[in-house]
Amino acid sequence: MKIESSVELKKVHAKDIVEYLRKNKDCTKKLMTKELGFSFATISNICNELRERGYIREAVLDDVKVVGRNPMEISLNYENLLCLCLDLTVSESIRAAVMDYGRNMVYSEDFAYPGDSGAKQVVEVCREIYEQHILRKFSPGQIIGVGVAVPGIFERKSRNIVSSEIEIFNDQPLKAMLEEALGKSVYIDNESNLCVLSRYRKADTYREEEDIIYIFADEGLGIGVVSGGTLVRGSGGYAPEICHMPIGNMRMKCHLCSSMGCVESDLRMEGYVEKYRLFAADSREKGEVPPKDIHTWEEFENLAAKGDDTARKVLEENGEIFGKLLSVLNNMFNPDCIYIGGKTASVIKDRLEDSMRQVRARLLAADYVLPRLCLDSDSGTTALKGASEMVFAQWMPL
Question: In this predicted model, what pLDDT tens digit does every residue of 105-149 receive, in sequence order?
């Protein structure tokens, strides 16, 4: 934020103190004075206000002997630093969770809404969840904000959801609708951005990684990028976008733009099913015995686990396509680490070595250091943690 007054400077210092306590757990005012570079009076005054608001605790250090008053050990009061997170990325389902400032999930429950619901009905279900379930366990004052994961892009200029895999959210002012229904500040983003934000904040605390990519391949294909410690968004919130990168099978028609060869057509869950059926049709044309007809991701996953020949062909081609995608992203962003999440990660993992051959073949330099590849087996929880990080990052304690 732009600092134009002593009041705004005080808010920034308060945020610095809270973040310091988050990373360093228990400490004293004297230690914060030394490490943050603020005066002792500034530290003391801000801590007093934070304590009055219930955000921190102070306890006497009995085992420390000094002349005069014993120093006070300061720690965050996580019970009063909570965020409500709503995952709206799965059709007809809402996962509600409450996260504290220490990245701990203190509540989680799944809810359903009717398949014929519109955006207004979904928002109404969210209101009911908040009033009938969340507020039975927590007070309104404990919830400092709401973070929401959506299967689409939060368009920064119109402030609507666009390009959503769940059609009812398209062109809807979901953020404003939820803020009116819940009476709280709402922060909203797509699951890929939230997943990479979650991983970056964790890495930023415990390691030194400033460049991270998260590929989310589930009902759709998305990517979140932190470059140089900053989440890449673009002027309207569309960046980076990979769904329509034309490196896929040119016989696959995009369900979004109707073009051929968009990479999402291959790498989303339904893409594996469609490609299996495409290869099955090829077998029939050749006079071969066609494989079983399938209609769901679960059927494909089951056949792949059994070593079905047609499923193997799909995995081989998609492994190559995924490798091309990794190559482009690696050369473009030079990341420390690439995370892979979403339901398709269960089949991608067995083809990663094939994919990495594509990356190695297209390196910018012979001594180029390859990024770490990490599979995320619980991307849903990662997205919820990212939603909480989004809220906590923008929340000001004073």
Answer: 999 999 999 999 999 999 999 999 999 999 999 999 999 999 999
- Residues near 18 by beta carbon (within 8 Å), at least 6 away in sequence: 50, 55, 56, 76, 101, 397
Q: Are 152 and 166 in contact (CB under 8 A)?
A: yes
337-341, strands of its sheet edge to edge = 230-231, 221-227, 212-217, 337-341, 372-375
Beta strands in the chain (DSSP E): 56-60, 72-76, 82-87, 93-100, 105-112, 143-150, 153-154, 161-162, 186-190, 212-217, 221-227, 230-231, 337-341, 372-375
| Triad 310, 315, 320: Cα angle to 5° | 130
Backbone angles phi, psi at 27, to 5 degrees: -160, -175
Cα 140–143–149 angle (5° rounding)?
125
Contacts of 203 (CB under 8 A, 6+ apart): 209, 212, 337
Euclidean distance between the first and the last CA atom of the chain, given in angstroms as a whole number = 14
Distance from C-alpha of 95 to C-alpha of 126, rounded to nearest angstrom: 10
Domain with 103 in it = 80-197+382-394
Instruction: Establish whether the linkage from the previous residue to 140 is cis, with ω within 30° of 0.
Output: no
When divided into structural domains, the chain yields a total of 3
* pTM attached to this predicted model: 0.88
Provide Rg for the chain, Cα atoms.
Answer: 24
d(CA 316, CA 361): 17
Query: For 86-111, what is each residue's pLDDT tens digit?
Result: 999 999 999 999 999 998 999 999 99
Number of Cβ atoms within 10 Å of the Cβ of 35: 11
3-state helix, strand, coil in the chain (%, to 5): 45, 20, 35
Question: Do 237 and 324 lie in a common domain?
Answer: yes
Look at residues 76, 94, 125 and tell me which one is the last residue of a structural domain.
76
Contact yes or no for 297/269 (Cβ under 8 A)? yes
- CATH number of the domain to which 366 belongs: 3.30.420.40
